[in-house]
Amino acid sequence: MMDSSDNLSAQAGAVERDAAATSVDVDTAVLLLGAGVTAITHPLLYVKLLIQVGHEPLPPAVGTTMFGRKVLYLPGFFSYAQHIVTVDGKRGLFRGLSPRIVSSAISTVVRSKVKQQVELLSKTDELQFSLRKVIKETSHEMIIQCLSRVATHPFHVMSVRCMAQFVGREVKYSGIFRCVVRIFKEEGVTGFYVGLIPHVLGEVLFLWCCNLLAHFINTYAVDESFSHASAVRSYTKFVMGIAVSVLTYPFMLVADLMAVNNCGLTAGLPPHSPIFKSWLHCWNHLSSQGQLFRGSSFFSRRVPVTSLPFIED
């Protein structure tokens, strides 16, 4: 009898060890996948960041709209990326990548650990499409997102500043350790969290709008009698995410601009950029200039109306 009990205990221990090993393998795979995706998409975010800070090193070209009107178009992603390669070489496209990879890894770990704790404390006995369930799940997602943002924002600031150095050709921020020392020495702990508030607000607003809109559409607009109702519901949140991300983009833009504001780089100092007293000051300035969506598109970028010269036919 005792032998049988010992065998059961041994088998249970083996199962737990196998489960733990599998969990570690999955976490490692997720971390590696996240690092790979971060590296592949980095050139896109690099060009986007330079456009956000208002750096336009290439002259606009004359083009025509679908109605035949002549306008000036700024270079798109490929032209901008080629310019970076011309100046810094192909490796230049990956300036500021290392802080982003660290940020991605920390975000994955934090999300995983917090999600496990939240799931242990929550109950899932609500109806599948109930509003109460959506509110509870969104609240949990918000907690996870906020904690993840607080943990990773310092690395976001480092990455943004490393990339923004392209504007003035500085070498002030290079390497994670040197970035940490430099920021702490010049700005203290608060320097690691500049732009945190608009970033968190944008992400929280995105979560609530996306989840609630998807819930109401799936509940009241998708008819159960429709043969492909389940397929439509599976795509609703994705489509809502694209639409809502456009509305919350100004928060991300302001957060990135505040990360380089008055940090000693050309991109964040006059005459290239005003010195902003707060993120609201930055928002109001961009709004007055009609620039709240600067950098939201990589293609068909028109010269702002405020700086558009007269074009003769």
Structural summary, described in words:
It is built from 8 helices and 3 strands, in the order H-E-E-H-H-H-H-H-H-H-E. It is mainly alpha-helical. The protein is globular, with a radius of gyration of 24 Å. Residues 308-313 have low confidence and may be disordered.
Short summary of the structure?
With about 325 residues, the chain is mainly alpha-helical. It contains 8 helices and 3 strands.
Number of strands: 3
**Mean of residue pLDDT values:** 84
The portion of residues forming beta strands comes to under 5%
Q: Quickly give the structural class.
A: mainly alpha
Quick tags:
313 residues, mainly alpha, three-stranded antiparallel sheet, 8 helices
Strand and helix map with partners:
Elements: H1 2-52, E1 61-64, E2 70-74, H2 77-88, H3 97-121, H4 131-168, H5 176-187, H6 196-221, H7 229-260, H8 279-289, E3 301-302
Antiparallel strand pairs: 1-2, 2-3
Helix pairs in contact: 1-3, 3-4, 4-6, 6-7
